[in-house]
């Protein structure tokens, strides 16, 4: 495994979803074992003070930073097909099925097209699903970090304000169950009950879903980034769609990457 890294000052300390053995099944498309969590929802830990938070109305005035904008749901949030729509087409809950606060990545033009509204990427099928939310219904934070996953090169790279922070080999989906390409983001961060198990110490749930599996071990085929108990699978097309990296690095990323971090798979 080849890892390159440079120092980075501690900033935003993202929420970690702490999990213990219980009855809820974490189903990210990956190796055969499942991660069991206590109850329906694990408990989000406190966030650090390094995030740049602002109200939706303030953020809609402009997108001056170099990072991505992330909308954090303040409660159950209505999703509209367009700002001119008379009624919402659906809602997203305040928390995910794993107890994480729901976040949505604001699209590249979503903060500028319509005053008082954001176009967001929604954490549902299909993978390119977007919708509009009222700016006053969300809190907006800027995230400077991003993840790029190169399927051909089987490499995962973390960027900080566009500059490479670290890179490593990664396992990807096998040909029958390919890792889906697209623009996604981190929706959940889960600490597993068995650090030496199939998912390693942590799993990062993405807004991506398998384009082949609509059901996997009782779940809906959500894709994630996680560790592995089979290091030899890293750098190979060996999973059911998830991205596998070393246990050491997934633990580092679980503390480094905030919810909403953009993940580009290509």
Automatic annotation (TrEMBL):
Keywords (A to Z) from UniProt: Cell shape, Cell wall biogenesis/degradation, Glycosyltransferase, Hydrolase, Membrane, Peptidoglycan synthesis, Transferase, Transmembrane, Transmembrane helix
UniProt keyword Membrane present: yes
Keyword check for Cell wall biogenesis/degradation: yes
L,D-TPase catalytic domain boundaries: 145-266
Annotated transmembrane regions: 15-38
Any single GO BP term: regulation of cell shape
Chain positions covered by the region annotation Disordered: 44-67
Listed Gene3D superfamilies: L,D-transpeptidase catalytic domain-like
Pfam annotation, one family: YkuD
Cellular component, GO, one term: extracellular region
GO molecular function, one term: glycosyltransferase activity
Pathway as given in its UniProt record: Cell wall biogenesis; peptidoglycan biosynthesis
Active site: 226 (proton donor/acceptor), 242 (nucleophile)
InterPro entries in alphabetical order: LD-transpeptidase, LD_TPept_cat_dom, Transpep_catalytic_dom
Family, similarity comment: Belongs to the YkuD family.
Record PANTHER family: L,D-TRANSPEPTIDASE, L,D-TRANSPEPTIDASE ERFK_SRFK-RELATED
Protein name: L,D-transpeptidase
